[in-house]
Amino acid sequence: MNMLCIGDVIGNPGRKAVAAILPALKAERKIEFVCANVENLAAGFGVSEGTLGELKIAGVDAFSSGNHIWDKKEVEACWPLFPSLLRPANYPPGTPGRGSCIFNTPSGVPIGVVNILGRVFIDIALDDPFRRAKEEVAALKAQGARIVLLDFHAEATSEKIAMAHYLDGELSVLVGTHTHVPTADARVSAKGTARISDLGLTGGYSGIIGMKPESILRKFLTGLKGRYEVAEEQVEFWALLVEVDEKSGRAISVEQIHRTL
Length: 261
Fold this sequence. Notes:
Blueprint: E1 2-6, H1 11-29, E2 31-37, H2 49-58, E3 62-64, H3 75-81, E4 100-104, E5 110-117, H4 129-142, E6 147-153, H5 157-166, E7 173-177, E8 187-188, E9 194-196, E10 203-204, H6 213-222, E11 235-244, E12 251-260
Parallel strand pairs: 1-2, 2-3, 5-6, 6-7, 7-9
Antiparallel strand pairs: 1-11, 4-5, 8-9, 10-11, 11-12
Helix pairs in contact: 1-2
């Protein structure tokens, strides 16, 4: 079967790109399952019921996220409405939301999805991402998931690659998100785990990692933070297409998907 992982969807331009490109792509490539990272979905920060609804209508099945999932208080109402909306599983116990889920495709294949946040260069009190990821993967398999996808939302490429080695053969797919720049290292290991260090953002590439350049340049030049606004031009769609053997859960092939709106 074919599954698609979409990189961080940034604001209205990213949502428009998904709506315009995904339905035809699903039909063309016979894609049965789609996961998208949504932590920047609503005006670049956080999510809302309406913005998640747009992606669901466009054909996204599961929603992973990261540290910005909390940026809008509207997320509190989204947890019961969207069972496949995830936040990183290695936040401390008692944190709202869920860190993993199982999604059943129309053909009846159970797919486990895990969301984990890295610790390198990220100043948040988090549980060990490696141990937590291993526990979540084992729990999903115990619940019957044949295929397991991990969105590792992390700053450091080395940490993402280390996770891929740590769980090699236990995962079907590991995708890196958070840094918003697509990397050129998509591959399948000998043990059948597909990986890429970063999917890249889906949204405007005219700015700096999805935002208009002025406020970010101001921070670099003066040290002062400004109000970030979503970049709206040069809108691109980036994703990873993975073919997986649905019986063994082993990845067979990977292909980066790049479209321009």
